[in-house]
Design goal:
Chain A has 353 residues and is α/β, with parallel strands linked by helices. Helices cover 41% and strands 20% of the residues of chain A. A seven-stranded mixed β-sheet of chain A has the order 3-2-4-5-7-6-13, sandwiched between helices. In chain A, β6 (137-139), α6 and β7 (164-170) form a beta-alpha-beta unit. Chain A is globular. Chain B is α/β, with parallel strands linked by helices and 253 residues long. Chain B contains nine helices and eight strands. Chain B has a seven-stranded mixed β-sheet with strand order 3-2-4-5-7-6-8, sandwiched between helices. In chain B, β6, α7 (187-206) and β7 form a beta-alpha-beta unit. By secondary structure, chain C is of the alpha+beta class. The longest helix of chain C is centred in the N-terminal third of the chain and has 5 residues, at 16-20. Classes of the chains: A alpha/beta (353), B alpha/beta (253), C alpha+beta (71). The A-B interface holds A 23-24, 26, 50, 52, 54-56, 58-60, 62-70, 72, 74, 88-89, 92, 96, 98, 196-201, 204-210 and B 47-51, 53-54, 60, 63, 66-74, 77, 80-89, 92, 109-110, 112-113, 117. β1 of chain B pairs antiparallel with β4 (63-68) of chain C, so a sheet runs across the interface.
């Protein structure tokens, strides 16, 4: 039986990574994710891996690029301003098709912002973030357990698609302490026939993102685009008390978690409210949104920002029903009661009974 | 009656260099420097365990020439990428090959800290005092008064500072185990360059720590000189400001 | 007799080998290769010692050197 422990969200990320075979970690300190490098600095030598505290976020992501190029499972983690710096490397990982796991325990911005929970990095995470036409697969956990589970999955998905995978949490998801079942990782990762291991007895291998020959880059970009299309089947989401919902709340990560209690409060009052929580932000659960839009009279998107995911919800809903938004810029964490009240404002505005 | 004496081939291309023409301009020293590194990979029998980090600049296409496993690093990040390669595969021979724009400008932090950590890697640094690939702009190593496309009145010390002496700078770090500055402008210097590279590879093979070889190199095209004039400038102006020699050799007896 | 073979298609006519040869056995020619470079010519009259300085300093590996073995 899997061991059950009481740990912080950030520790769950680190433990999930190690369980999934991550042996190399490169990072740079930034609040609110320091538990991850701290955990890794103690754990990596014990599992025969390596931890390097890099001189910068830029160096850390490029160390990841080098180690991952050898076929190893590698992770880096940071928080919003640090993730901005890592975008260069993430773009190169995508272009060179080198897998890697990047954790963003996001904080508030823009600029130095603050260390409050925030979902202001949604656009950055789901639109590639760096230069060029690429996407990273984005997983958005809402509990410490999901931190553990999804981090394991992140390594599998990164290898499967030879693509960077981002785990997007926030200060709340990283700092919360709760029970986690430490499920064992049972998969057997496939050998990587592209990895740089030294060209003994074979042709030399090359991992690059530069394509200068006529037409080469067009072919490369179309190939990547097809890969992102294939990724669509990895879409994940959770419906909560959604079966007969007149109003469907849509939220991810920390807000998605808080809204479950808000839904319970509203249901107790007899309001038919449900929740759709996207777990993959890229690929985005378009079909689930469409399903919700077809069944409900109203979609209400709630985010810890001034309106980002709501754009994707509107695109997916294709005007099948109205899409309302409640945004909360960083500063404080909303309570379930507060969000239930905001939901009721939207409910009344929408003329629901 | 004496038999006709036999001719023995005494110079041939190294095995780990592909038999293809370089894209470099006539008289550019990159070609010689590539060959010297390839010779050491051959000499030490390292082709099958070599991992290279290519950089951005004229030498980004190094993988078109070296028949070894290579990953392309973003501009300036080769030392960080090499850190990742080496940490994940400590038994490999890991090298970077970087120009002065790459290593001494945008990659300053990466090279300083890789050296300071004593990463057991070998860095080949090609200093031609100019950004070559992008068309001859001023580099951190551009000499005072040198005219480039972004210092049209000559590099001004007041505005741009004086050129960085990278080998000297890295030699001050405890993590740097071997550091030398060499040139390939004449046969005497070339022999020293070979010895320096051999020593640098030996350092990594023995696990003695960070090894660094700076090559002063010509760039006839961007210096707007003939290959002969550019070659001469390396030995004179360049070597005057960037003195050749072994700056650090912590295992020297 | 030691000799230098010019791989004319690889020569870019930079002339660094001409500078390197202690015996002045190499000179820039007036024939052009497919790349459009006037490649170097070797003529020794028995003076070539097979020292390989030329090939060592050639950026394009366009020279092969054969040394006469001692009897």
């Amino acid at each position: 039986m899997a061991r059950r422990v009481m740990i912080k969200g950030n520790e769950a990320i680190a433990m999930g990574a190690i369980e999934a075979g991550c042996r190399y970690y490169f990072g740079y300190p930034i609040t609110p994710q320091n538990d991850i490098p701290e955990y890794m600095s103690a754990a990596m030598p014990k599992v025969g891996g390596a931890f390097v505290q890099a001189e910068s976020e830029v160096a850390a992501i490029n160390m990841l690029l080098g180690a991952a190029a050898t076929g190893a499972r590698v992770m880096t983690s940071s928080s919003s301003p640090g993730i901005s710096l890592k975008q260069e490397g993430i773009s190169y990982l995508a272009g060179s098709q080198i897998p890697g796991v990047i954790v963003n325990m996001s904080r508030s911005g823009p600029g130095l912002g603050g260390i409050h929970p925030s979902q202001g990095d949604y656009f950055q995470a789901t639109r590639g973030g760096g230069h060029g036409d690429y996407r990273t697969l984005v997983l958005a956990p809402s509990t410490a357990q999901e931190n553990y589970d999804l981090t394991m999955d992140a390594f599998d998905l990164a290898d499967k698609y030879r693509n960077p995978v981002m785990v997007l949490g926030d200060a709340l998801i990283g700092q919360i302490k709760e029970p986690v079942e430490l499920k064992p990782y049972r998969k057997k990762p496939k050998p990587k026939d592209w990895a740089l291991t030294g060209a003994e007895g074979r042709e030399a291998r090359l991992l690059k993102s530069l394509f200068l020959a006529d037409g080469e880059l067009t072919v490369h970009n179309w190939m990547l685009a097809k890969k992102y299309k294939r990724m669509q089947k990895e879409v994940r989401y959770e419906f909560y008390r959604a079966e007969d919902a007149k109003m469907m709340l849509v939220a991810f990560g920390s807000v998605g978690r808080i809204l479950k209690t808000s839904v319970d409060i509203l249901r107790d009052k007899g309001k038919k409210v449900g929740l759709l929580r996207p777990i993959t932000l890229y690929p985005f659960p378009d079909k689930a949104i469409q399903e919700a839009a077809a069944k409900s009279k109203l979609l209400a998107v709630m985010e810890l920002n001034t309106g980002q995911m709501v754009e994707d919800v509107k695109l997916a809903a294709e005007c099948a029903c109205p899409v309302e938004f409640y945004g909360r810029p960083p500063g404080s964490i909303p309570t379930p009661d507060e969000l239930a009240k905001e939901a009721m404002k939207i409910w009344r505005k929408g003329g629901l009974k | 009656m004496s038999a006709q004496p036999k001719l023995k081939k005494v110079f041939d291309r190294p095995q780990c260099l592909k038999d293809v023409p370089y894209h470099y301009c006539p008289g550019c020293h990159h070609g010689v420097i590539h060959r010297l590194l390839a010779e050491q990979i051959d000499n030490f029998g390292l082709r099958g365990k070599t991992l290279g980090a290519a950089s951005v600049g004229c030498s980004v296409l190094i993988y078109d020439y070296f028949d070894v496993d290579i990953v392309e690093a973003p501009h300036g990040r080769a030392a960080a990428v090499a850190t990742g390669l080496k940490r994940a595969r400590p038994d490999s021979f890991v090298f970077t090959y970087q120009g002065d724009g790459d290593l001494a400008a945008i990659g300053t932090a990466e090279i300083v800290h890789a050296a300071n950590r004593g990463e057991n890697i070998t860095v080949v640094f090609v200093n031609n005092a100019v950004f070559g690939m992008t068309g001859g702009q001023m580099a951190p190593t551009t000499l005072e008064g040198q005219v480039t496309t972004t210092s049209p009145y000559g590099r001004s010390a007041a505005e741009a500072g004086l050129p960085i002496r990278v080998t000297e700078m890295l030699s001050t770090l405890e993590g740097t185990a071997y550091a030398a500055r060499v040139a390939v402008d004449n046969i005497k210097n070339l022999k020293k360059a070979k010895a320096a590279l051999k020593r640098a590879v030996t350092y990594q093979q023995k696990g003695w720590g960070f090894s660094f070889v700076e090559f002063l190199s010509s760039c006839p095209t961007n210096w707007k000189m003939t290959p002969e004039e550019a070659n001469a400038r390396v030995g004179k102006e360049m070597a005057d400001y960037f003195p050749l020699g072994v700056y650090k050799d912590v295992r020297a007896n | 007799m030691s000799k230098v073979e010019v791989v004319s298609e690889r020569c870019k006519g930079c002339g660094l080998c001409v500078l390197a040869c202690p015996k002045k056995n190499l000179s820039l020619g007036d024939e052009y290769n497919a790349q459009g470079y006037a490649y170097v010519k070797f003529s020794s009259d028995g003076k070539c010692t097979g020292c390989s300085f030329c090939a060592e300093l050639c950026p394009d590996m366009a020279l092969r050197v054969y040394k006469q073995e001692k009897k």
